[in-house]
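Table S7 (text form). Paired inputs.
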Amino acid sequence: MTAVAGADTLRLRRVFELERDRGCDNKAVMGGLDRMLIQMAEDGLMTTASPLGIRFKALPRAGYRSLPEDERRSWVEATIAALSTSPSFAPPARPSAPGRAQTARRATAPRGRGTGRPVSQPGEEAGDGRVALSVAAGSLRLDSPLTRLPGVGKAAAERFERLGVTTAADAVFLFPRRFNDFTDVRKIRDLRPGSQPQTVVGTVFSVSEVRFGRRARGAQAVITDGSGLLKAMWWNMPYVVRGLPEGAQVVLSGRVREYRGRLQLENPEYEVFDEDTMSAGRMVPVYPATSGLGQRTIRRAVKAAVEALAADVNDPIPDRAREAAKLPPIADAIRAYHYPESEPAAEIARRRLALGEFVAVQAAVLMRRAEWQEDNDAPRLSLEAENDGFLQSLPFGLTRAQQRCIEEIDSDLRGPHPMLRLLQGDVGSGKTVVAFASMLAAVRSGFQAALMAPTEILAEQHYRSFSRLLGGDEVTPLAGVFVPPWLGRPLRVLLLTGSLTAAQKQQVRGDAAHGGADIVIGTHALLEDGMEMPRLGLAVVDEQHRFGVLQRAKLRQKGLNPHLLVMTATPIPRTLALTVYGDLEVSTIDEMPPGRKPIKTRWYQPGERDDAHAFIRKHLDAGEQAYVICPLVEESETLDVRSAEEEFEHLRNGPLAGYSLELLHGRMPGRMKDEVMGRFGRGETQALVSTSVIEVGIDVPNATVIVIEGAERFGLSQLHQFRGRVGRSETQSYCLLFSSEEDPGPEARERLEAMCQTTDGFELAEVDLRMRGEGETWGRLQSGANTMLRVARLTDREILIQAREIARSVLSRDPRLQKPENHPLAAAAKPLLERATEAN
């Protein structure tokens, strides 16, 4: 390390002169003099024998900030005098390290590579008259390693890597997940119940681990701030006890709830109070963290990176579009979101950054759609003949919503470009009939069709449903030949699943490859390399949320530019549809078949089980059937929930003794599962105890009651899917939710209450999206693409629509983003495009 010369001594002296002139308010440098001195000592920029080192040792253990004003002034003036008599000071000599080529991961959108600019050195004044703390000797670049940031050594860098942060640019884009609002810290006596987080600062009076039921554990603490006592509860988080020592001053932020006449914080965020960064009147960022990496270290590193590099970040929104929309520079938004003046200011900055993220995503999906549809040789199909054929033969009429979707699909199938369409609708709305009609349109035109489902049970259910609608009896999967009078020729439908023998699979593949199969229904087995359908005209993917872009792209490769129809019974909010499925047009069946009654849902407390079991017996006695769903197959040592095997034994020997029950779970052989479902479907079994294996694809109209054990452990989407197993006839159906505990926690309560309040899948999807979070949803659907969204939320409808228009406008002038002014957008969209390209 080079010695600090006299010019540096002069700049340091100016720091203390500025502190003296400001009245010794400890604001001459960002973070205070203590922070600057400690950092210099850690960086080896002063020795204990140097003039500044001697003055540093003269401070009390609590530091400069602990001194009263007159003692601060005395210390500052003595330090100025000491520096005035010393022309320079130098750290101990160290051997210089050999040069190493620095390789760094390219910054993901909306990052860019800049030329870099020197960061502030000790004594350089910041824009507000204060002095910036040194972050490293020399300049800092976007691709600089994290160890160039203050307080980040090798060990801390390894911990940062767990957060996906390996470069200075990554630190710039490590945005806060929330803020501690010290502009409005509340006294305990002023807290009120509500859904918005509230922040308190207090002392831990007591802390202990608690148990809920037989196995579940949590933590509770009592906090005091002199105005009252407040209880804080952490459900299923016993480890909190280790991070909250009694007597520590802490900050807690969370939702306040009234429970048994007293207020309590539920699952609050917490951290030990830090006077340096948590002063009153500030919005303090709280960053994603990991074990061994505290907020203080993160804040210091991020602050240095933002101050040095925000101006070097490339904006994915081209200048022309940014000026037209009157948007502020991205650097201003980055700084404002890390260090906002208020909550509204933070939201304004977040929305500006979210717009850039969404523009990159929309550019990617629109370019992907254009690439997939650039050929004009898609099969020309038509659904017109099915109106007088298959659809006319159905024992029921179509709803207006089904007819509208068929017209939208027909319009796509007639065009020269491959159809890329999403068909969504609630459980039981009739999506499958629309898909079957589209598949038959392909067959009538001389092409093949394929339907891919995520599970064998669902694939087999589709096969049986198609067989019934084609007028066939029970047939084996390899002999599915039908002769519907309205088609004018025999039709062969085959089933391909993982449970078939190797010889059976080979026979299906051979028939598909050589024209012996018109329609193949199957699971992931359809994607295997040996499976070819040279005349594939339409590929259908059911339960699209179980697959990603790569799987549906691979299925399309089985033919030459086939049309693609993807379906989901998980209603998708418009914003999510435009983001995750932005390359697809969307058709929605938003109407249920006539005569269906809304399913009545009730949440039963543990003490009400006897009443619930009496209710089930009443309906079984009436000739109806019931499902009982459990979250686990076997009893767990750690989870306090009923397993399917445990509940099966309990019911058949207790509340439902004398009734016919069977057990179904995913570990059973395929043939055994088929036999169990067959008996239940024929009404030979009155109640079926099962795991989530029946989430989709099971259609038993006589089943009118479904019990969901451990309901608090399932997400809203899955609960709604379970409920969709009943309500498939004109008979009134019921859903009974059982939770393991009387009070399962705030988030679980919200899910269960939402289930009781509405049966509208689209309304529940909005609630589910808000509760589960965008990152999880995006990642689950797109196999890890959630890194594209750092601050954008899938509930940002208006922002997304604006972003789509910006992306369309830019692509209309530069379809491949080849112009220099669009290079930052091309770089930001590249990761998503690469994922799609890998499948081609």
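Next pair, protein 2 of 2.
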Amino acid sequence: MAKKHSPAERVVRRVTVLSIAACAASLYGPSLHAQGGEGEIDWDEFESSTGADEAAPATSPEPAEAEAAPAPRNDYAIEEIVVTAQKREQRAQDIPIALSAFTDDKVRGLGIESIENVAPRVPSVYFGSFGAARPQLYIRGIGTRSFDPGSESSVGVFADEVYLGRSTGSFGALKDIERIEVLRGPQGTLYGRNTIGGAINIVSKGPTPEFEGEGEFGISNFGGNEAFAAAGGPLNESGNLQFRVAGWHAYRDGYVTNLATGNSFQGVDNTGGRFRLAYLPSDALRIDLSVETLHDGNEAAFGGFNQGTGPSAAGDPANPTATFFTPAGTAAVANPDLRRGTADTDPTLDRDARAYVGRVNWDLGDVTLTSVSAFRTLDIEDGRDLEGSSLSVIDQFSAEESDQFTQELRIASNADGAFSMNGFLDWIVGGFYYDDRSTREDQFFIGVDSAVRAAAGTPALDVASSDYKITSYALFSEVTAHLTERLDLTLGLRYTRDDKEATQTGTTTDAAPIIATDFQVFNKADYDSLDPRVVANFKLTPDQSVYASYSTGFKSGGFQYVPFSAAQANVLFEPEEIEAWEIGYKSRLFGGRAQLNMAVFTYDYEDLQVSRIIDAGGAPVSLISNAASSEVMGLDLEFLVRVNQHLDLNLSYGHLDATYEDYVFSAEQDLNFSGTDLVRAPDNTLSLGAETYFELGRGELTMRADYAWLSDFYFEPGQGDNRFGSGIPLSEESSYGLLDLRVVYAQDQWRVTGFMTNALDEEYRRTVNALGSTIVGFAGQPRIYGVKFGWEF
């Protein structure tokens, strides 16, 4: 068990780690200069290459304009990536934060189709889920597995600058994507609401001044088939009215089979489309409108199988047929493995999401005004055998509807404007408004094999429903002063206020199921936070820099997920708060042929929100509670090198030391998790990639291999120690690695792609559902292989 550290020891550890990082950056940075450290740096040339006259424009460009043209392979240089992660166009290497970016070429070349494909390629990022509607995203050990409207994600997801407030609608197919940016660490100033762990910024492809298009269709094992097409260009002779339209459909049979019904699930069943329109009445004004729709069908439903309980505290063997909420002596059919089992009910899914976005970008000369307005709707119904066994115990069916409106307004300085003081300052001020109205109903069918219905021999129905209203306001500003040609200082501040209301109701058809008596509870709460950010960025050379930052983050408090009593509904959980320190090093080396980025960080985390389901005297209790304090320390490293025009190599590595410093879940049940590891926070994550490229006949052949590995980690608090419950040992996930292979042959405008994901057919769990001492496991994706045919024009 991890050692609990005193406040003094934590300060010493933090200072030690950050000092080592600073020394490493200063000692090794100059020696890794692109010219190998020979000769003196021409700082006159450096100043002209990075001075105010060359500063990036303050406006956020359209996606098609945000990418630098790729360098030819025979130039040996790694392509530069231009991002809008800080609400203005900048080179990714110039931004003093831990940032990983994937351009459209990388999205296609790596076979990225969802955030699940992104996570293994970014240091210290973990993605698991109960399916597309129930994601679990963690960055540097910070995340959440809650997905109802009463609570929110710790990692903010943004699509075309729009915050996606509902976790159940925040993850979908990544189609027609220009760029994906993953920002690690709290992003409390510019992104704000619930980005305490980090942010993911997704940018779709926008309209273009020239007519262009692309398409792709493919097949795979498990009966998979998919099709995608997109086109865009001008709609009038002047070219000031432009469009882009994209549509897609993907289907694949599930890889998990219910032996009781013969049906499969955990496949792909996704259809969507996006239409974007841009109007440019002048060089200074651009108006963008977009509409997007997304549907996930039944084949994409997720379900898990009962794995029983682990050994008792006395060391008895694990019981694979033990089932939650059943009478003593009741046993289920043993499940053969994660991908095959017996459940009394097949899972279901029907999700529809729609988005309407309007964006105005107006260059007023000295400043640029940006407005982003969005309205999103979400309708989702899903169901599952909650305990995943052959017995009729508990089936859950959920229905959620949500309407979300957001408005962001920003004013940013232009580099050549009067308010930039001749390029000395880059600044941005803005306001943000968020309104969400959500309803959710959960129906629990209590079967005849349950402890409370076995004697009666008839099932019962319990219903928990909630109505939510959430309103959020924020004001924010950030300014960067270019103190010298080498030193920049950034100061940021954001004020956020959340007002929340919830009416939660429980009804029962019997006096003894999980809801013992009918109830209705109304709660109202408000939370606010003032979050600063301070960053110093120092350029060692034109291609190398070190930075140090201090920031705070805030995640709003909220209401319990599916309370089973008025007492539970009245337990509101408090906001999370974080203080984060980070030192980083960014570089392009050896004439641009290599790129090395590193960051060390330490977090003081207060009131971390943790969700658990426990068995309280024969009745389930689902509670979100606040872990009093937690500490996270770690290291991120990303390295990319172009060995020659035929070979690229990349490596990313993340190390975490993440523990609950003070976390007493229940004093009565002796559930004190202090000193144990945070959930879903593997100590080590590693990603290796190799891509080889050469001419073949009249075309080009590219072959790529990627291997992602996670060290062992825990799905539940308790670090696998069975003294916290007999199921806790089964919540430990052993280390595993996933190998992906791709080969692409391209000729002129055509290409053929062969792919294989999880080539070694590694068995692993993407998540678990811990029900008291019973663990329900959800299988990760097996080996998938297929071929795609694509074209561009």
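Residues 476 and 494 are 4 Å apart (CA to CA).
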